[in-house]
Specification:
By secondary structure, the chain is mostly beta strands. 3% of the residues lie in helices and 42% in strands. It has a four-stranded antiparallel β-sheet, with no helix packed on it.
Length: 399
C-alpha cells in the first residue's frame, strides 16, 4: 500500500475533524460554577500573565455571582484539567474584568466594570511584589470614586493614552448616559489613591461592546463598536500626541446595525489590519483597510448569513489560521443558542461551517485563541453565562 503524502494526510485530517458535519471539539473546563463561591454567570475572558511565568492566565467576572476570578495557566500537560484559581475580589453585576499593572510595581492588578445597580469601575490591587500573589486576603478591592453610580460600565481597555508612562483606562458603557470615556492615571506613585483618578468623557454612545487600540501607518487608533441607538456602528478615534490626546470619531462602517464584538486581523497581503465585525442577528462582515485609516472603509465581503435554525445570534468573532494553511478562519460565538442550537462554530472565507461546540450552552461571550496544549494549533477559549458551563476551552482536533 502506498503511503499518503504528508500534505494530503493533513488535508484529510482537517476535513474529517473540523469540516462540515465533523466531530465536535472536546470541551475542557477551566473554572466551573459554584454558587457558594460566587461563581455564577461567567461573563467574558481576558488574557494576561499575572504570575510572570510566561504562560497566559485568564480573568473572568462572574456577573450573576460576585467573584472576580483569575485562573492560572498550568501549562500544556495539565491544561485539560480544571486550572488553579483565586478570587481577587467580589463585586456584583460584573460585565468585564481585565489585567492592568496600574501602579507600575511589575504585578498586574485587575480592573472590573459593573452595570446593574452597582454601576462602578473597581480596581483589585495585587499584593506587593514581596507578598504571596495567591493569597486572596492580600488583594484589595477599591472603587474609582469618579465612576461610582455614573454609568452602566461594560468594558475596559488599558492603554497609556497621555504617554506619561502609566496605564490609563478606556471605558465603555451602555444606557441613557452611555459614553466612551478615559480614566486618567495620576502616576505610579499615587495610583493607589483612587480618588485622584480623573474621568474624561470622549464620545456619547448607546452600548459599547469593543474597545481596542491598534497601530496603522504612523498613528495609533482606538477602535470601538456600538450596538444600540442612533450612533450604532464601528468607529475609529485617532490618538494624538498632545492634549486632548484623542481625536474625533470616524464612523467606518455598520451604521445603524447591531454590532457586537469586532476583531482586527490581516485578511490580505497589504500588511494593514482589517476589521471583522459580528453583527446581529447572523452576519460576519469584513472591512478592508483603505489607503489611510481615516479614508472611507469598504465592506469587502460578508460571510453568508449563518442559519438561525441551527445556531444562536452573533456575539463575537475571532480571526486566525486554525489549520496551518495560512488562510484566515473565523471563530464565531453566539448568544440565544437555546433549544438545541449550537453556540460556537468556525467558518472559512467561503462560508463553509465547521462545528465546534455542539448544542450545550446558550449564551457565549468573547473568544480568545491560544495553543493551550502546545500541539501546534490554536484552541478556543470562551465562557458561557446561562446554562452555567463556566470558563472552558475547546481543543482543536487537527494535530
Amino acid at each position: 500500500m502506498k503511503s499518503i503524502p504528508h500534505c494530503l494526510f493533513i488535508a484529510i485530517i482537517f476535513l474529517v475533524t473540523i469540516g462540515q458535519g465533523g466531530e465536535l471539539w472536546n470541551r475542557h473546563t477551566i473554572d466551573q460554577p459554584s454558587s457558594e463561591a460566587g461563581k455564577k454567570g461567567a461573563d467574558g475572558v481576558r488574557l494576561g500573565d499575572l504570575n510572570n511565568d510566561g504562560l497566559l492566565d485568564i480573568v473572568t467576572g462572574w456577573e450573576e455571582g460576585s467573584a472576580i476570578r483569575v485562573c492560572f495557566n498550568p501549562g500544556p500537560k495539565a491544561a485539560r484539567n480544571p486550572w488553579p484559581g483565586i478570587t481577587v475580589g467580589k463585586v456584583r453585576n460584573a460585565e468585564d474584568a481585565v489585567f492592568a499593572d496600574l501602579d507600575g510595581d511589575g504585578r498586574s492588578d485587575i480592573v472590573s466594570s459593573t452595570e446593574g445597580s452597582t454601576r462602578t469601575v473597581f480596581v483589585h490591587w495585587a499584593p506587593r511584589s514581596d507578598q504571596d500573589l495567591s493569597n486572596e486576603t492580600l488583594w484589595e478591592t477599591k472603587p474609582f470614586p469618579k465612576t461610582v453610580n455614573q454609568q452602566l460600565w461594560m468594558f475596559c481597555y488599558p492603554h497609556d493614552l497621555d504617554e506619561d508612562g502609566d496605564l490609563d483606562l478606556f471605558l465603555g458603557s451602555k444606557g441613557s448616559n452611555a459614553s466612551i470615556s478615559w480614566l486618567e492615571n495620576p502616576g505610579h506613585e499615587t495610583a493607589r489613591a483612587v480618588e485622584t483618578w480623573e474621568l474624561h468623557r470622549i464620545h456619547n454612545a448607546g452600548w459599547i461592546m469593543t474597545l481596542t487600540v491598534f497601530q496603522t501607518e504612523d498613528r495609533k487608533y482606538l477602535l470601538s463598536s456600538d450596538r444600540k441607538g442612533p450612533r450604532s456602528g464601528i468607529y475609529l478615534f485617532p490618538l494624538l500626541d498632545e492634549s486632548p490626546w484623542i481625536g474625533k470619531a470616524k464612523l467606518i462602517g455598520a451604521s445603524g446595525k447591531e454590532v457586537m464584538f469586532v476583531d482586527v486581523a490581516h485578511l490580505d497581503e497589504d500588511e494593514k489590519l482589517d476589521v471583522i465585525a459580528s453583527i446581529k442577528p447572523n452576519q460576519i462582515r469584513m472591512y478592508h483597510h483603505p489607503k489611510t485609516a481615516l479614508s472611507p472603509w469598504v465592506a469587502i465581503s460578508d460571510l453568508e448569513p449563518f442559519p438561525q435554525d441551527r445556531y444562536g445570534s452573533a456575539k463575537a468573532v475571532k480571526v486566525a489560521d486554525l489549520n496551518g494553511d495560512r488562510i484566515p478562519n473565523f471563530v464565531i460565538s453566539c448568544e440565544n443558542a437555546q433549544g438545541g442550537k449550537h453556540g460556537v462554530f468556525a467558518s472559512d472565507a467561503s462560508s463553509k461551517i465547521s462545528e465546534i461546540s455542539g448544542p450545550e450552552g446558550a449564551k457565549f461571550d468573547r473568544i480568545e485563541l491560544l495553543d493551550l496544549d502546545n500541539d501546534g494549533d490554536l484552541d478556543v477559549i470562551s465562557c458561557e453565562e446561562r446554562q452555567q458551563l463556566g470558563v472552558f476551552w475547546y481543543e482543536n482536533p487537527l494535530f
